[in-house]
Design a protein that fits this description.
The protein is an alpha/beta fold. It has 4 helices and 7 strands, in the order αβααββββαββ. It has 2 domains: 77 residues; 65 residues, Chitinase A, domain 3 (Roll). 34% of the residues lie in helices and 21% in strands.
Length: 164
């Protein structure tokens, strides 16, 4: 686009209009660790915001402040709606907060921890309670087979171990 069609004010405010982060419609169940992670994220964002306020005349700092404020609103909403859930350590079935070891059709074992949406991290084998895998596992016991519906095809998993 030619500079003749750009208002100076538009350039000044470029990058300062960011969309809100979507908040899940599901109940916000969290583990104690997940709640602590949200608190730590809020603290980190607040500290970053304070350090950037000294540079508020710089456009890059202004853009980052807008993103930090948006993220702080999100984290504050998640903390406010958090439903801290303590696992029932005596339970014999898979519930929120459980670590479940499963064996797939090839005999491979994997363990997954069922956590809140904000705590989910597949690299750490933490899956959201709203995920298809967690939904397949919740309510079942050791020795039971469950069908995990996946886009590449269903797979049968046997629950080998449940721990809290």
């Amino acid at each position: 686009m030619s500079r003749g069609f750009v208002k100076e004010d538009d350039l000044e405010h470029a990058g300062t209009d960011v969309p809100e982060r979507p908040v899940s419609a599901h109940p916000n169940y969290v583990t104690a660790n997940g709640y602590a992670q949200l608190q730590a994220e809020a603290l980190k964002l607040e500290q970053e915001m304070l350090s950037l306020k000294a540079k508020k005349d710089e456009s890059a700092a202004q853009q980052r402040l807008v993103i930090i404020n948006r993220d702080l609103r999100y984290v504050a909403a998640r903390l406010e709606s958090a439903l801290l859930t303590k696992p029932d350590v005596a339970s014999q079935q898979v519930l929120f907060g459980a670590t479940v070891t499963v064996e797939d059709e090839n005999g491979d074992n994997r363990s997954y921890k069922i956590v809140g949406e904000d705590e989910a991290d597949i690299k750490a084998n933490k899956v959201s309670w709203t995920s298809p895998l967690a939904k397949a596992l919740i309510g079942h016991k050791v020795g039971e087979n469950v069908i995990w519906a996946r886009p590449v095809g269903n797979t049968v998993l046997e629950i080998i171990k449940i721990s809290y």
